[in-house]
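Hi all, posting the design record for the shared folder.

TITLE: backbone redesign
STEP: 1 of 1
STRUCTURE INPUT:
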């Protein structure tokens, strides 16, 4: 296994970043006492998670209300952007005929606009119009037969950004076959909105973790930065951890989720440019100023692999795990390297 430092930044699917959360307290001679107020989140955007706020003891009740409000915000956004909720805005858009404007809320339209920009920036590696391809591979997993080339071509051509117009009020599909899936960006947007709510309420620090995608601000109750584990994609334990504050950390990879077709295990991440499951990287972790950016590039670099490093925007850093359990490399940007501490390394 080789460690390599790369100038630039990387990001993609699947590594699970985890936060070890405890009820720290700090205080002392004349110093304030602070504690960590946690709230577990269950079944939001297809995953579970945790939110925490750093508080003083007298703020317990107010913090509990703030965390409930943040959770309500997450669920509201899910109700608008989930393909699994029939009455969501996204489902209405997916089911709409061609040529008719579909009104969208400000938040859903903002996510679509960010996704459109990401499609340009990543050369098509991040593409939320790939829903027909996702459904095609879902059917392949059930039938046990890989999709034929013609079916892949049809799915890819049935839904593209060239067939969509975003307006001030919503979106117009030129053809009814256009379908969106916001799974690679909506969670990041929801995390950002929840963090912004907590920051506006003035807590000393806080963190939102949805399925291993994380954004934090401020400091822990001890005044230290947050530590975020980066899991080993080839077995138990962790590769190491990140020391971070006021950033988002999103992860992606093919070692936890996959589909099996014709006896072969395939990544659940598709290359929307070809319609085939990607094999460019087995795991990626991305650090960015916000979770939307980290979420996008974690997905894109799963498709692009190390070749996507030069496309990373300023302020984004990443780790890409390249290879397999028998022979692999950890490719890190300089910024990631500075925050990363390998497992077993002296602190």
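Okay, here is what came back for every position:
SEQUENCE:
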């Amino acid at each position: 296994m080789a460690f390599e430092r790369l100038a630039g930044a990387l990001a993609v699917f699947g590594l699970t970043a985890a936060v070890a959360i405890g009820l720290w307290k700090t205080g002392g001679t004349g110093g304030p006492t602070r504690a960590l107020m946690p709230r577990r989140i269950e079944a939001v955007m297809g995953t579970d998670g945790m939110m925490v706020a750093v508080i003083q003891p007298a703020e317990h009740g107010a913090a509990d209300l703030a965390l409930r409000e943040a959770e309500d915000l997450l669920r509201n956004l899910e109700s608008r952007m989930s393909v699994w909720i029939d009455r969501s805005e996204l489902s209405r858009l997916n089911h709409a005929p061609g040529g008719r404007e579909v009104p969208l809320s400000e938040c859903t339209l903002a996510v679509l606009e960010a996704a459109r920009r990401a499609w340009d920036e990543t050369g098509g590696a991040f593409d939320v119009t790939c829903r027909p391809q996702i459904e095609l591979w879902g059917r392949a997993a059930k039938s046990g037969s890989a999709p034929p080339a013609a079916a892949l071509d049809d799915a890819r051509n049935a839904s593209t950004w060239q067939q969509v117009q975003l307006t001030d009020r919503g979106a117009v599909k030129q053809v009814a076959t256009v379908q969106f899936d916001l799974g690679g960006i909506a969670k990041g947007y929801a995390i950002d909105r929840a963090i912004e709510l907590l920051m506006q309420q003035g807590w000393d620090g806080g963190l939102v973790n949805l399925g291993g995608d994380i954004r934090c601000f401020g400091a822990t109750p001890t005044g230290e930065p947050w530590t975020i584990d980066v899991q080993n994609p080839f077995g138990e334990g962790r590769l190491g951890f990140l020391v971070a504050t006021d950033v988002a950390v999103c992860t992606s990879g093919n070692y936890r989720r996959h589909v099996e077709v014709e006896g072969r295990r395939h990544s659940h991440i598709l290359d929307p440019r070809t319609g085939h499951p990607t094999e460019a990287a087995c795991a990626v972790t991305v650090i960015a100023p916000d979770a939307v950016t980290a979420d996008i590039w974690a997905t894109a670099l799963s498709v692009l692999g190390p070749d996507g490093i030069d496309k990373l925007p300023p302020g984004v850093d990443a780790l890409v795990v390249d290879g397999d359990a028998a022979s692999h490399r950890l490719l890190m940007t300089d910024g990631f390297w500075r925050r990363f501490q390998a497992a077993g390394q002296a602190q």
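COMMENT: The chain is about 30% helix and 30% strand.
Let me know if anyone wants the other runs.
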